[in-house]
Amino acid sequence: MHKPATLFLILLLFFCAIPSSSYGEASRRIISLAPNITEILFSLGLGDRIIGVTTFCDYPEEARKKPKVGGMWNPSLEAILNLKPDLVAVSTNGNHKEFEERLRSMGIKTYIFTARRLSELPRDLREAGQAFGAGQRAEVLAQEIEATLSRFKKPAPLRKKRVFFIVWPDPLVAAGPGTLIDDVLNLLGAENVAGKARVSYPKYSIEELLRQAPDIIVIGDMREGIQKMSEGLLKRLKSVPAVKNNKVFYIGDDLYRLGPRTPKGIEDLSRLLGDKP
User: Fold this and answer.
1) Which domain holds residue 58?
2) Are 230 and 219 in contact (CB under 8 A)?
3) What predicted TM-score, i.e. pTM, was given to this entire model?
4) pLDDT (tens digit, 9 = 90+) per residue, 194-215?
5) Residue finishing a domain among 100, 119, 150
6) pLDDT at position 46, please?
7) Residue 51: other Cβ atoms inside 10 A
8) Which residues contact 133 (CB under 8 A, 6 or more apart)?
């Protein structure tokens, strides 16, 4: 083989191995299979390319108007195929690997978001920015996350505030290990009462929570329905220090998804815990 031909083949293989340009230029029709991915894509300025989302994708407001393809765990393959996507964006933290493999086996290009923990988010943002041709926006978001982590990181106090974060009041479900909420509580120097549970979102009985006696109770999602559901629960917990000392707080859902709203969630939780960066 002549040298020019050899050089051409090497260059061809090299450029074919780089995914960033192909995603950015060729992926004009994107389906997102996770709410945090949807938020990330919108924050990168790619909202006009999104042609389908899950039923859980409700932020930003524009996401509600996109065609739905089912849930995170059980998306409809038929609905996805009918939308004729160039690419389907999936997450290792919520989507089944088998479904992603099935999409690829049918010739549908996929992009995988791999971040599961707070510390991994800046890397995931940068990689997505490079892949979709939105590197500058991604860098701004990644630096915002890193600045927030640096600003709020606290040394371990002599006595940590014991916090119980309720993600659902009935049945009583808490944020446990491996969740974004657990990461943020650790960042803020607090002890997550449910942090040593065996599952990420453990169920608790009233009796167990009475024994745990948290200093602070935080209830996620400030919708009126959640607050009403919590009233009866709090009456049964009246002997818990958090309830006796009026240390029960409601907070929005910014910490429910690993994405661009995470810095705001960290700031809000820090304020409720009485901490200042």
Assistant:
1) 23-150
2) yes
3) 0.86
4) 999 999 999 999 999 999 999 9
5) 150
6) 96
7) 18
8) 20, 21, 23, 24, 25
- In the structure encoding, which two tokens stand for residue 158, read together? 């002599």
Q: Is residue 1 part of a domain?
A: no
pLDDT < 70 stretches in the chain? 1-26, 222, 275-277
Is position 126 within any domain? yes
| Same domain (yes/no): 63, 40 | yes
User: What is the spatial distance between Cα 52 and Cα 54, in angstroms, rounded to a whole number?
Assistant: 7
Residue 145 near residue 180 (C-beta atoms within 8 A): no
Instruction: Return the beta strands (E) in 13-171 as ranges.
Output: 30-32, 50-52, 87-91, 109-113, 162-169
- Contact partners, residue 20, CB within 8 Å, separation at least 6: 130, 131, 132, 133
Residues 110 and 191 in one domain: no
**Cα 131 from chain centroid (whole Å):** 19
- What are the backbone dihedrals phi and psi of residue 148, each rounded to the nearest 5 degrees, phi first? -65, -45
